[in-house]
Amino acid sequence: KGYGGGGGGGGKGKGKGKGRLSGAPEQKVWIGNLPEDLKWKDLQTTIDESGIKSAWVEVFGGKNVGTGAVVFKTAEDALEAVAKLNGTVIGGQAVVFDTWVPKPKEEGDEDAPQETSQDAPPPVPVA
Questions:
Q1: Per-residue model confidence as pLDDT tens digits over 37-86
Q2: Which of the residues 52, 69, 72, 121 has the least number of beta carbons within 10 Å of its own beta carbon?
């Protein structure tokens, strides 16, 4: 009891929605104009065939369909990938490889609960 039992991975990282897209922003590359039916494995093959080894590849769906991200082992590999692969034709489309720019909003989101809890008391007296 309590061991094994097909937990499906134990829920590690569940609900985060980030997959393994972790790493310094300098090691990440944003990719745009991807064919909608492109699979991550096909993108990984294209990148690896260029001679630059990717550490993690993700193709986004939903509202971000047509975009993806790649994490490289070093910032140098990421810069080389942008220089070498930008404009590469995949599935009949010239794709855009660009440096990863983190959203400044993410930093604000971490502080948001504190600000919200501080802002919460004023509405109470009004009610």
A1: 999 999 999 999 999 999 999 999 999 999 999 999 999 999 999 999 99
A2: 121
105 φψ region: left (φ > 0), alpha (ψ -120 to 50), beta (else): alpha
Average pLDDT over residues 89-115: 72
Using the structure block, give the residue that is written with the tokens 């440096």.
Answer: 99
Task: Give the three-class secondary structure for 104.
Answer: coil
Q: Is 33 exposed, middle or buried (0-12, 13-18, 19+ CB in 10 A)?
A: middle
Using CB atoms within 10 Å of the CB of residue 10, give its burial: 0 to 12 exposed, 13 to 18 middle, 19+ buried: exposed
pTM comes to 0.65
Residue 6, CA distances (Å) to 9, 15, 66, 81 in order: 8, 19, 34, 39
Could you tell me the two tokens for 62? 């939903």
Q: Tokens at residue 21, please?
A: 């897209």
